[in-house]
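TL;DR need structure tokens for one chain.
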Amino acid sequence: MNTKNTLHIEMLSTYSLVEEFKATRSTTLRLVDTLEGDDFAVQTADYVSPPKWHLGHVSWLFEMLLQQASNDYRVYSEEFLKYLNSYYNKFGEQHDKTQRGSVARPTTEQILEYYDVISRQVVNFLETNQEDESQRKLFELGIHHECQHQELLVYDIQHILGAKYRPSTKKQAPKPYAKQKQIHIEGGIYNLGYSGKEFCYDIELPEHKVYLNNYKIDALPVSCSQFIDFINSGGYQNYKY
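>> reply
TL;DR here they are.
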């Protein structure tokens, strides 16, 4: 492959990462754009985090990646660091998770400003450092981390607000599946784990061989209505399931 083509591929790769980053950040903000000011700071249980903490934490991780990737990076606010850390011992102390809702400062407004500042800094960094593959992978990890917190964020908002939570956008419910069919899988030795070169989590490594007995598996994913039927019919009380 010549140098011109290699550079073209690298530019496309970086461009797609920047666009993916922007789309991910926009999605996170859409999840909270119907919340009222007081909603952002509520913590209704030890295992629930206030929405403002989620917004700050995902930005905090990107800031830690910026600090790691750039020798002259200056931390946005030392005050934020302990509160927004969760369980990353590498990055210092963490605030008690069960007490995240007891902290008035940083305010929601400060967290949203922090979110915006870090977003702009990450975009600028990615657009000006497109040749470093190892750093690119770090920020790809940050994107996946934020996607995980989007799920947690919705879960926590629903715990805080219940039926009062109304997202700004709502997708149409999927059409009911056709009658579920089962597929028979022959037993034998199979390769499990990830063998590619793109992003994966550490729990997907290493690729390894495993022996499986004959088994059957549904051809289609279980729908929400099927899962509710399973719960209502006592599925969690029956040990065989």
